[in-house]
Amino acid sequence: MACGIAVGALLAEDLSGTEALAGVGTTAQVLGTALLTIPVARATAARGRRVGLRWGLAVAFVGAALVLVAAVLRSFPLFVVGMFLFGGGTTANNQTRYAAADLAAPVHRGRDLSIVVWATTIGSVAGPNLVGPGKALAHALGLPELAGTFLFSLVGFVLAWIVVDRLLRPDPLLTARALDAAAREETRRTAEPDLVADPACGGVVDVPNHDGSMRRGLAVVRSNPRALQAMVVMALGHLVMVSVMVMTPIHMKHGHAELEVIGFVISVHILGMFALSPLVGAAVDRWGAPPVAMTGGVVLTLASLLASRSQAGWSGLLLVALFLLGVGWSCTLVSGSTLLTSVVATDERPATQGLADVLMGLAGAGGGVAAGVVVGSLGYSALASGSAVVGVVILAVGAARVRHTAAELS
């Protein structure tokens, strides 16, 4: 995924012939991530995590292939379709963090979830740095140089699909459901030894809810303010991160930065997104999700303000800003994901987690579209300054939950 993210905006500008559409490719990918979550969530609810993950990875493979074809044919519309399907890879990646939490002990849920987020670091940091080798490979194969990195994406999706298919056994969600059902049955038998689990005999039978629809997720959120808070934190954090990140390559290009330098900056940003996530998860387990969400809001605000003051092209200030942008996003993602998993029942997880990722993706897609417009009319500095305001909103959302918890305790 990181390969495509690093060159998506540049390839979009090249194929469209205008800077105004530079963010469309990445925005299509983010939108695809959001909308493809809907069928993945339904498949997961019905048949388990393994089926959902395989589906997302297969769609992403098709998307990467279409992007390659679009680059050869110089077709911007086909490129947009390919990037939309390419988003299935992020959909699958997003769902892996929930798979990690399905069987986690409550006291270590943040840690276990964050370890899987951290595992993304190696591929994510290496991905943008494959821009140079991808360019050389493209030249050797007679392909446009910006399309070369998508060849690495194709290989990555195949390997990921094999790992999920062969090694994700037993399925964590299906196992968690079975354990929950066994625990409920044991509790029922202990409380009422003579209870017969047959409605005809006066007993009670659990009817599992395997509805992974967005409608079901909305129903759960309406009655669960903590789940809503988790979704808002993740959505706004993603909005800030995507808005600034997607236009940073264009900002650097305006300053005549080399393609390899742009790839390095994006790799440092992705390092910030994932490398420190185990520490973030430990903080969530120790102090709770709302304080970590507040920290994420502060870091995102600082990162955006630093980016707003950076010069076009290469600068150390921009490098620090993009790293902090990733760290702030990690705080909102891990805290929100852990809180969401903690406050909903096992059977409700696919629907609510799917809804959360849809909203997060739509927020990112909206931010990507707005980012291109803002940069085209007002400049990169204005975009980053506006993102800082959203960071303050995240801080307020986390603080509201902390005050509510304190009031309940008193």
UniProtKB/TrEMBL annotation:
The principal localisation class reads membrane
Q: Does the keyword Transmembrane apply?
A: yes
InterPro entries hit by this protein: MFS (IPR011701), MFS_dom (IPR020846), MFS_trans_sf (IPR036259)
Regarding the membrane, this protein is recorded as: Multi-pass membrane protein
Gene3D superfamilies, alphabetized: MFS general substrate transporter like domains
Q: What is this protein called?
A: Tetracycline resistance protein
Q: Name one Pfam family in it.
A: MFS_1
